[in-house]
Request: fold
Amino acid sequence: MKASSHLPSSADIRVQVEPAYCDEESSPAEQRFVFRYTITIHNHSENSVQVLARYWKITQGSGKVQEVRGKGVVGKQPLIGPGQTFRYTSRAVLDGPVGVMQGAYTCVDTATQQAFEVDIAPFRLANPSQVH
Reply:
């Protein structure tokens, strides 16, 4: 199979985020607010792509910023074929009831070995009792 001459870009890879507050794991009295987020990565390119690394910037409601970098996602470096998706769930623990996460994935086009970044738009983490 011939590789496509069109290299994947962040426009070809769509990231969908579904955040949720984990009431049962949180302890507001101890300033521990746990959020789960489910990510679905959609590959709309003509080539397979592999997620090699992740970067997250987590901004707490207090203004404190935490940056997280690591290999892959949830211990994997998933290979996502054309038209396929990869879905995973992870968690973030905040010191307050609201925060914002944003980030990027470093991916590689497996046909050309060309690396590229996929931005993850900011999304809000909020305890439902804090939403007005």
In short: The radius of gyration is 17 Å. The beta strands are 13-21, 33-43, 49-60, 65-71, 79-80, 85-94, 98-109, 114-126. Confidence is low (pLDDT under 50) at residues 1-5. Residues 13-127 form a domain with the Immunoglobulin-like fold (CATH 2.60.40.1470).
